[in-house]
Automatic annotation (TrEMBL):
Protein's recorded name: IPT/TIG domain-containing protein
Keywords from the UniProt entry: Signal
Alphabetized InterPro entries for the sequence: Galactose-bd-like_sf, Ig-like_fold, Ig_E-set
Annotated source species: Flavobacterium cutihirudinis
Keyword Protein biosynthesis: no
Family annotation (Gene3D superfamilies): Galactose-binding lectin (2.60.120.430), Immunoglobulins (2.60.40.10)
Signal peptide (residue range): 1-21
Amino acid sequence: MLLKLYLVASISILLFSTSCSNDSSDSSGKLEVTGISKSVVDDPLVDGDREVDVPTDIINAGNYYIIRGSGFATLKSISFNGLESYFNPTFVTDNAIVVLVDEKTPYYNEMDEMKIVTNIGTLSYKVAIRPPSPNIKGFPINPNAGDIITITGEYFLRPVVNFGTTVVEPIEASLTEIKVKVPDDYKYKYLSITNVSGTTVASQAFGSAIYDDAFTNIWGWNEFWDGTNSFDFAYAKDASQGSKCIEWKSGEWDGWNIAIAFWNFTDTDKFKAVRFSVKGEKAGKVKFFVNGDADNNFKVVEFKTDTWTYIEIPFSDLGNPTTLSKVGWQEFGGFGGNNILLDDIGLVLK
């Protein structure tokens, strides 16, 4: 969210001088492109390197760009390799266009063309079009050293795989799957994948999952408030991470706990928050609580029915427990119960 606000603020500043010099709704001068800049350049593996408005001659799909020139005021459409991209008219002046290049823009064996259509004409402009940065969809979060694991996602074009700072050579790789061997020093480090366009870092640290397509070694047992609730702990019709999630058919105000297996897991001091993703048959709420105390150490969160909602709750919002023995949820919609999906349950590193 902070990055989005930073981006919007940066775009507003970048366009301010241009819009002040020409605030007319009519295009002036000829239709032409004089330069292209990437709105934000930031390597997630390098702290403090973020730059804004960086000139470039390459378009990576899935990113914001600033197109500079003239004749843009009556912009009707902008496309890359034949696919139109969304633009917000608020971020268009006669001399600049801010555009989010569609992630699905074709990039292989294409014409490398940007086309701008306005009321005064159409301009075709030659520019290299490349794929987005990698999209990591799923991987085993709690593997063992030496395991051969499969990472699924998109845009794995000539991928470089890192476990923390350890580079791991892929055993097999396609655009959507990578097989690698887990190195010895993997635990509590982040997976990152770099392709020809950039780097993506997974949001889950290795060894941090309580549920990842199935319960992990951190799980001890489940405690159910109401035995009539139905659970499917390998629901395969939807998932936010990996290929399965938990389907919980809950009555109104019902709840359950996951107990942490201290005979397998003693590293809660390395973490600062609990994470999970949630979705419902009906948009609603759940109360999240820790250590079995649903009356004190809790936080109520909302979720949607059409998209997964990622939730991250700091221990500071839960009474700063010195020991984490249980995590739990209570249906809190207030409308008679709900079918709730939960996934990617785990902990967040400090």
